[in-house]
Amino acid sequence: MLSESNLNKVEQLRKRYPTSQALVLPVLWMVQEQEGYISEDSMKYVAALLHIPFGHILGVVSFYTMLQKNRIGKHHIEVCTNISCMLRGSVKILEHIEQRLGITVGETSPDKKWTLSEAECMGSCGTAPMLAIGDEYYENLTLEKIDKLIDNLK
Amino acid sequence: MNLRPSDTEQLNAWKRVIIPDDRDLYKIDHYLAHGGYKALKKALEMKPEEVIDEVKRSNLRGRGGACFPTGLKWSFMPKNFDKPKYLCVNGDESEPGTFKDRQIFEYNPHLLIEGTLIACYAMGITTAYIYIRGEYGKWIKMLQKAIDDAYANGLVGEKILGTEFSTQVYIHRGAGAYICGEESSLMNSIEGERGYPRVKPPFPAQVGLWGCPTTINNVETISNIPVIISYGWEWYSKIGTAKHPGPILVGVSGHVNNPGVFEMPTGEPLLEIIYKRAGGVPGDKGIKAVIPGGSSTMILRGDQLEGIRMDAESLKTAGSSVGTAGIIVMDEDTDLIQVITRIAEFYYRESCGQCTPCREGTDWMFKILKRFQRYEAKKEDIDLLLDVANNIEGNTICALGDAAAWPVQSMIRNFRDEFEQRVQTSRFQEIVL
Ligand SMILES: Cc1cc2nc3c(=O)[nH]c(=O)nc-3n(C[C@H](O)[C@H](O)[C@H](O)COP(=O)(O)O)c2cc1C
Ligand code: SF4
Ligand code: FES
Questions:
Q1: CA of A133: which chain B residue's CA is closest?
Q2: What is the ipTM of this complex?
Q3: In-domain check, residue A70
Q4: Which tens digits make up the pLDDT trace of B100-153?
Q5: Is B163 found in the same domain as B85?
Q6: What is each CA distance from B264 to A72, B8, B51, B316, in whole angstroms?
Q7: pTM to 2 decimal places
Q8: Which residue range is the domain that position A89 belongs to?
Q9: Residues having CB within 6 Å of any atom of ligand 3
Q10: How many domains, chain B?
């Protein structure tokens, strides 16, 4: 299931840790980056690859919020609503995005283009309000900036 | 040089050493050309115990939240040991209001790598893991590039700088869990477990990663090490306040004109940080409340900030703590019930659920606070809320329980009137009377 180059990376990673269980998180990241999410089949695959019980892998995937058990939208918009962002208007930002996309927090659009989530502090409090799409941060948000962003991603 | 941060003219006198103006330090050639990795060279010419002694005498205290003396922590590591020892550099940075370590990854990654190497040398460690929160994908790439460059220059890996000292430095990426910043949870996360905190004792210096002696230090703490080695403990211990010296990265967010991370000597008055550095409050509004060190620290009243400084002693006296030095400013129009409800929601969501007081208590606090927010609370709910918070504090495996209780306790202590007002405007007022 993992690509050739990813399998090579796994072999390299083995040198970094004394146990193969320590590879669980890095390998799950690889799966998610390759497939977009971590299916039950992927978890079984990782379990076999690392010789770890499937139940353990499932436990790990369920624990970490960034690991996605279900297929989500092409663009995963995560809006920080924690304190510093809230003080600088994240509530309005979130409402505006909900309106623009026609979905509410936790939903994926029917065309699978958007998933919208509320997030905890992402370490951008000095440039609040903010949102993240994948690894990309969008900071010092205004409603106009959001409109542009959504238009450009269409 | 003895900087006295109380003097206003000192505001700009501090020549920044953790995040200097120079925006090219991330390039290894540039870093090397400007004295980079000289501290490592100097440390390698010292005996490991001399390095630990230097750090001890500098009085550096951890920047990860608890202000624990770094040299003392290092001295807990067993000297001669036949099993491996480990260093975990904590870059989980998930405390709401905190965004400082990210600046180091971005603008001065080699300072962090250099500090990591010196720490490893001092404690006889051959493997270091830098644990970074999963959301920081961009910054992980930046730091990885710097690590790769350091490897390519013979600064990390085998026989560093031609000596017998060898150390590997790896990044381990988190995946979205605030609790993984807690040191024992962080170790479980590296081991490929769920991020559950461990019961202490045993402490990590005895039984840490894979049962081996381990030291955990914050990213900013480790970045102070090359500075101490370069300039010497005597210089360092005189920066800022004597009991909690050194440069500190202070983040200011919320209702200020110029939010950001500012490097300064410890002990600067909060009011000067807010007004002079962060540009004051928009619309010249008054300050209702300030959280001084990230959401886990006790909230302070805006009208009682006079004389409070950004250092461990001063904030302790004021009934709060330095935490991660992430100041959150709230202006006079802020709805504090909304603020504390959101904070409570955060701890409720992030509790790992291992201990009953934390799991149930954070749920209760959030539920009660939602009643206040919906104008449905009764007068007794104030004391009920306090009672729940008091029952969490001190009764849990890790400090997340306390971190959840403190904001609620301090909010009621300092702003009981806000809760009482909410009750008076409650829809259930008639029923209560
Ligand atoms: C719930 C919780 C979250 C924490 N998160 C972090 C964090 O994100 N970064 C950090 O450096 N320390 C964090 N800490 C503190 C660590 O447990 C530990 O004390 C610290 O990393 C030690 O480094 P220092 O001595 O250099 O400060 C957290 C503690 C708790 C209880
Ligand atoms: S205090 Fe809370 S977060 Fe910490 S171990 Fe207990 S349940 Fe988990
Ligand atoms: S509160 Fe939103 S990024 Fe920190």
A1: B135
A2: 0.98
A3: no
A4: 999 999 999 999 999 999 999 999 999 999 999 999 999 999 999 999 999 999
A5: yes
A6: 44, 12, 25, 19
A7: 0.97
A8: 75-153
A9: A 80, 82-85, 121-125, 128, 130; B 96
A10: 3
